[in-house]
Amino acid sequence: MFYIELAARNVFRRWGRNGLSMVSIVAGVFVLILGRGFVDGMRENIVRAQIDTASGHIVARPADYPTFGLQAPVDRLLRLDDGTRRWLDQHASAWTTRLVFVPRAIHGNESMRVRAFGFDPATDESVFPRSQWEVDGSIPGGSQDGVLVSRGVARALQLVRGDMLILEARTHAGALNAMSVPVSGILTARNPLIDNVGIFVPKPLVQELVRPGDSFSHLAVKLRDRDDAPDLASGLAQAMGPQAEIRTWIQESASLMGIMDIRQTAMDMLAMVLMAIAATGIANTVLMAAYERVREIGTLRAMGMTRAGVVGLFVTEGVFTGFLGALLGGLLGGWTTWSYSRNGIDLAALIQQAGDTGTYDSIPFSTILYMDFREPFILGAMVFGLLVAVLASIYPAVVASRLAPADAVRAE
Amino acid sequence: MMVLWIKLAIRNALRNLRRTMLPAATVMFGVALVVVALSWIEGIMGDMIESNAAASGHARILDTDYVAREQLQPLEEHIANVAPLLDRVRALPQVLDAQPVITTGVVITASDEIGDDFCVLQGGTRDWYEKHLEAPEKLVAGRWLSAEKGEVVLGRKIASQIHAGPGDEVLLLGRTYYGSMSDTKARIVGIVAGDAMLNLQAFLPLEEVQWITDIPGGAIQVLVWSRGTDARYVGPLVQALRGLDGMDGLVVQAWYDVEPWNMVVGMIGAIKAFMQFLIVFVAALAIFNTMTMSVLERTAEIGVMRAMGLTRMGALGLFLVEAICIGLLGGVAGAALGALPAWYLAVHGVTLGEELADTVGASLPMKATFYASLTPGILLGAVVLGAAIAVLGAILPALRAASIQPVVAMRVRR
Amino acid sequence: MKHLLNFNLGMAVLSFFVHLAAPVALAGEFPDPVQLLHSMDANLQFDTRTSITTMQVVDSRHTREYRMLTHARGLDEAAVEYLSPEREKGTKMLKLGDNLWLYLPRSERVQKISGHMLRQGMMGSDISYEDLMQGTDFEDMYEATVKAEDLLDGRPCWKLEAIARDDTVSYPRRVLWIDEEWLIPSRQELYALSGMLLKVWTMTEVREIAGRQVPMLMEIEDKLKQGSRTVLRIEDLQFGVDLEDEVFSQRWLERR
Prior knowledge:
The structure holds 3 protein chains of 3 kinds.
Chain A: H1 2-13, H2 15-55, E1 58-62, H3 82-91, E2 92-101, E3 104-107, E4 110-113, E5 115-119, H4 124-127, E6 134-137, E7 147-150, H5 151-156, E8 164-170, E9 176-188, H6 192-195, E10 198-202, H7 203-209, E11 218-223, H8 229-240, E12 244-248, H9 249-252, H10 254-292, H11 294-302, H12 307-343, E13 345-346, E14 368-369, H13 375-402, H14 405-410
Parallel strand pairs in A: 5-10, 7-9
Antiparallel strand pairs in A: 1-11, 1-12, 2-5, 2-11, 3-4, 3-8, 6-9, 7-10, 8-9, 13-14
Helix pairs in contact in A: 1-2, 1-12, 2-10, 2-12, 2-13, 3-8, 10-13, 12-13
Chain B: H1 2-15, H2 17-56, E1 59-63, H3 64-68, H4 82-91, E2 97-109, E3 113-114, E4 118-124, H5 126-132, E5 139-142, E6 151-155, H6 156-161, E7 169-175, E8 181-192, H7 196-199, E9 201-205, H8 206-213, E10 221-225, H9 231-242, E11 250-254, H10 261-297, H11 299-307, H12 312-348, E12 350-351, H13 354-360, E13 369-370, H14 376-402, H15 406-411
Parallel strand pairs in B: 4-9, 6-8
Antiparallel strand pairs in B: 1-10, 1-11, 2-4, 2-7, 2-10, 5-8, 6-9, 7-8, 12-13
Helix pairs in contact in B: 1-12, 2-10, 2-12, 2-14, 10-11, 10-14, 12-14
Chain C: H1 9-15, E1 26-27, E2 30-31, H2 33-42, E3 48-58, E4 63-73, E5 77-84, E6 92-96, E7 99-104, E8 109-113, H3 129-133, H4 138-141, E9 142-152, E10 155-164, E11 173-179, E12 185-191, E13 197-209, E14 212-222, E15 229-239, H5 250-254
Antiparallel strand pairs in C: 1-2, 3-4, 3-15, 4-5, 5-6, 6-7, 7-8, 9-10, 10-11, 11-12, 12-13, 13-14, 14-15
């Protein structure tokens, strides 16, 4: 108790200097949390791009569905039966169906094949969030609203909002169909899968154009916890039968998972080095404190305090500073990552573009970086910061305790 | 005076070795991290940029209308007679080389049915293939195109897609610039493997593709190389190209103005800057701490020296030099420490796997194995960074020292 | 009975159909559509025909012209050889039933067209290979009704509407103007399921050749894409030419 009182008194006595040393711990913990959030965010970025734009947590698509190139057959589709509905009621936190097809888009004398995402205006956003979307215009909902065109398509066909776009497609059964629809908006989704050749067609319009009835090409499911996906997928596979192929987000992004090992290594390295930096910083501060109070230590030693007592005093002071620093750093880092985990950092905004040179369609991942916010890690970082503070203050404390009482007094 | 400063600073730094070593260690760790991370990023980026420069030049010249609708590959917007343009371009002092290229999509088959397999067909000069693309070095089977007609080299992925290999005959069915059907038959003489883009391409001599597209003597674009990929080479190159005669209706684009590079370069820059900022921040704080203490401790000493005629600038310099000593010490140690893992990564690299490279590499020329690039520039930069951190951290305490009044300083009692 | 109404787009391109004028039995005010179609079929009864046709492909940027020699036998067999321009000379196409082969003289290769390529336009025209492949079972595919008597370019025509019998047929609805005297579909409109007009196909410049009324000019216009159309003009036409069996075989494709 005496130590703590003394330590607390010392900490507050030289508030400026201790504040300074605290800043070093705050910075250490902050950087640790931020760095981890940043690196994890990079990894999460790819996974999220997969989950949020293509697959959800679990996706069902027709068996033998082509997964490369610009092809999306609509002749073999899936349907929801009671078993599937029951499964969805039980396990899904949200789900939606999409019908992907490849119509010819025509404007004036230009035409191109586009990838059309037929979406359900009522449920699509619950599975495929649109927080990264930038829409010049509006997102269509009804059959009269038209279609949302990605900027790649808009550029190639020279479309602006309000233009009439002709879509020519085969129906589910095989007949030719075509419609002239207004462009409700131009979309920048910051995902090359969409931004290059994608358009969004609301379900009522898909109904008129492709006439799939209640069938669809993709069922995308969001779970309460995405880590349940591998366990729950088999249940959905059973419910939907062999005509459907069930894939989890893990399988869908498996090829990208390779990059995670590297990221993991890089992250560990970064964390270790940052902590080493923080540790030397803390040791430095406590050592400063020790040197500064050489006379005081001498007095205490002369008054009969043992060397262990001096060590304890300084370590307690370190712990005190460390605790405050870790707390502050944790809060600061936690808040920062939390806020960036919700809003994301738009890396594109950080970049100066010399004039409007066009788009950045082909970036293999989203240009908005969402940091990864995980409470256990933040807590861990704080404890780690405290631990480092303690360990880092032991050495200078021992140095301080070695100062002989006489030397210490003489240090003047 | 300078010598005195340095002597004094070194003496001060050595006077309390422990106190010097700790911030030096902080700087060391920070600098080591910078060395590893930078060589890693440089390695990956440099690799991609080099692949890109090999495939697309440092700058390219093409028709304005082609650029506007590039997604649709409008072959009709080509450069009809490319030879005079090439002559003019090659005559420029900034230009290392310039090569004409035609790229077009074709249907490809090795069987007697056609219609299901597509690939990107490159029509390039021998010089482009050999000197820039270095394609002959990427062969995994067979050999590169000889002077003989009727030979084709395929990327590995497209070859496996059509189940064909060296010796097999393939038919390439493309279209002329005005939309007519146009074919050529060729025997596969080699298979190349490289980044994902390369793996999906077929390679023919330029003349052959000029025939297919019916653009005799023409090209879609002229790729131009300068002496380096850096903007300080490419910028003047682009300026010079734009100033040429007969550039009406043509545009010149530097590689970093073409997507996705315009984005990627900036993004990597942002990540680098973010990381460096964090490290500089933390390390500078440690130096700040040490120097503040040092200044406090030596207030009396400074006062005496000031009374003895040391100028304000002198006092400032004394502490700054001390900090720089610490920073350089940490910087050199850190560069040495960081060089080890960086060197390891540069030699052995990290393999990501073919599939990933194919997925991500569809838009960037990414390879299956990443190598770091450890250059003297990075090491030197890291040491300088250490010194810069030191100056940054020491500037406030040093200013404080400089503001010490001789009389006040002497009056201070400890 | 297999209905042989030969205004299927593909066959028209390959063989350029021909009709004989023949009286049509009137059922009430309008002729019975089935009978009308049958009458047209009856006029198609010939064995072989050979023609030289030019095809002009027009889009918003280019116009180009091909000259081709066409042999046809019945409705399922057709052989086309390009005569000009120089680049395309010697290129051959052979349709046997539902199969389509291509002979490329430069490569000396015979290729069966399949997959995605079927949807591409032949020589960049508005006629896709798939269009060429379409079956000729018009009556099986469509339910036809005569809607009105109409004037087209001052000539009386029966306006006939054909609705696809099931939803797998590529063109769900066609509207035809059949010339009452010549019994040719002077104009045909192809509609999408939505009712949107996809293509318009007109036949004009009818001339009498060997006692038959033959339209010498056919135009196919893509109504979705501005400025895109294909014009076919018959330059020379002969009936009953003695064609060897070999013409309708893969061997012919490779014959120089």
